[in-house]
Amino acid sequence: xxxxxxxxxxxxxxxxxxxxxxxxxxxxxxxxxxxxxxxxxxxxxxxxxxxxxxxxxxxxxxxxxxxxxxxxxxxxxxxxxxxxxxxxxxxxxxxxxxxxxxxxxxxxxxxxxxxxxxxxxxxxxxxxxxxxxxxxxxxxxxxxxxxxxxxxxxxxxxxxxxxxxxxxxxxxxxxxxxxxxxxxxxxxxxxxxxxxxxxxxxxxxxxxxxxxxxxxxxxxxxxxxxxxxxxxxxxxxxxxxxxxxxxxxxxxxxxxxxxxxxxxxxxxxxxxxxxxxxxxxxxxxxxxxxxxxxxxxxxxxxxxxxxxxxxxxxxx
Length: 316
What we know:
With 316 residues, the protein is of the alpha/beta class. It is built from ten helices and eight strands. Helix content is 36%, strand content 9%.
């Protein structure tokens, strides 16, 4: 959009120097999430929702759907970035609930790598890559003669996720992207604001990131799931009931009946690539120690300490 962001009237400093403690109750956190979402749906001309199938982006999607229903907005398209190495359960979960919720699900993929059928571990000569991918490798000062497809490396993550998203932004003209990041998740995200500008056209198609749940902590997300997200999606689910295992669900329900990834029941607390994510414990994610353990410690890309560089390039 050539006149972006001239048609917006936003406070890009909203949330600056704030922490989750400034929103001390779940009610306050939800109220702020709804306020940010209502503002975004009212101002962006072509918004979209990033959805990974994980708990944070599913909570954002819930808030967007609820605010859209209450305020008379259309539910925006939902963007799923396919980096070729998802858990099978993640793909099945996203497609199942996209169908149940009648969502406009759009896949973002690195066009060049997708068209050549590239998969994890494939080695591709740099000279054979598309002009876009070669240009991005030059930006990263990548000097190797070939590229190994791996979404958990700095270079692979950029090509498979950020470049894929940028190609989609260019193709669809989305101007506001709802994202499920939180202040407490990582140091690289601690200074984010509710409306975060991405206007440098040298790096990415100009757009904004809309971040309604910055003020949530991990335990808050799960409380919102059992109080609101799950009961509102599953008619027979009692609000506030917290299952201790997949066998502890009420009324003969199974994990597939809930808008909760089955990987969380298995003990994963953060969902990345199939090879780069690990269980944190044997009990479900919401039953684990969230006070003294790190949520993303099983994520390979975090172990490489690359998040700050990736975010500067346009990653979430």
